[in-house]
Amino acid sequence: MADKDPSPGHSMFGLNDAPTRRVTAPEEAPASPQPQPAAPQYVLVQQAPQTVPTTGGGKALPWLVAALAVLAIANLVLVLMARSQFNDYATRQADAMNLLTRRMDSSDERYAQLRGQFQVTSEKLGLTQQELSRAHALAAEVQQQQQAAVSQLNKAIAQKASADEVNKLQSDSNAKIGGLSTDLAGTKQDLANTKSEFTNALTGTKGELNGSIARTHDELVALAHKSDRDYFEFTLANKKVAQKVGTVTLQLEKTDPKRNVFSMFLSFDDKKTERSNKAMNEPVFFYVQGASSALELVVNKLGKDSVSGYMSTPKGFFPNTTNVLGQRPGA
């Protein structure tokens, strides 16, 4: 079997070669030295080194770095977008705040007008409420007298009183009811007169509220010529000095030139009131006892710790005080 299927290894190392036969010479021939067979030579064949398959770790690292770079760029884009949205939101909020500020300023002006109108009419309203209370009291008294008369009549009928007594009781009741009715009619007339006076005063106040505002001395002189009111100018140079205009004393409390507002104390009728956070060229109305209509105060110049303006009163209300036309005779 080995001869038929020689092994490659044996062939490589010369093991499959046929053995060398030794030939002997005939005995007669002299013996001669025979050459020795060559020693077998061995050849070592080194196999090629096996290559170790490399893994994919070296190729995955660039992909990981690229993924991190893409993620960083995405985060940067998101941050920039969020910042832009925040700036837009802040701008819209600022615009909304400005709009609200303007609306609040307009509401303050409207509130000043309504407050002046309320102060002018509060005294008249008090009189009207007093008369109305008197009317309610008289009506209640009439109702009680009627109930008492009816009760007396029923009692007389129940006791079978004479016709004269019944007639006398009825006459007395009618006389009392007639007297109370007369008082009630007089009270109604007083209420009507008070209502008429109140309506006239309110109409005059509305006209004053819708009147012109003088922003300069020349405009004030022109307004004094065409109006039936007296105008008196004033200047408060600081907070410590008070100025008296007629029976009204003015004292500056504070100013805010950035917002064009001021606060002032008004003293009249043995009381001291404050008008705070009033705007420049905004009319301030107040009612002084004895005046036929409201007094008006306007500040048309405002500085740091100083204001200037004028006060308007009914004609002749401050007879001993020189008005703006008296300061400039012939103007």
If you had to describe this structure to a student in words, what would you say it looks like?
51% of the residues lie in helices and 18% in strands. The chain is of the alpha+beta class. Among the domains are: 121-209; 217-327, Tick-borne Encephalitis virus Glycoprotein, domain 1. A 4-stranded antiparallel β-sheet has the order 1-8-7-6. A 4-stranded antiparallel β-sheet has the order 2-3-4-5, with no helix packed on it. Mean pLDDT is 76; it is low at 6-13, 23-27 and 203-210.
List the helices and strands and how they pair.
Elements: H1 8-12, H2 57-158, H3 163-209, H4 217-226, E1 229-236, E2 242-245, E3 248-256, E4 261-268, E5 271-279, E6 284-286, E7 295-303, E8 306-314, H5 324-327
| H/E series | HHHHEEEEEEEEH
Q: How confident is the prediction overall: mean pLDDT?
A: 76
The top level CATH class name of the domain at 217-327 = Mainly Beta
Structural shape: flat
Main sheet strand line-up: 1-8-7-6
Number of helices: 5
Task: Provide the structure class.
Answer: alpha+beta
Main sheet summary: 4 strands, antiparallel
Strand content: 15-25%
Cα(first) to Cα(last) distance is: 155 Å
Q: Work out the radius of gyration.
A: 61 Å
Number of strands: 8
List unreliable stretches of 5+ residues: 6-13, 23-27, 203-210
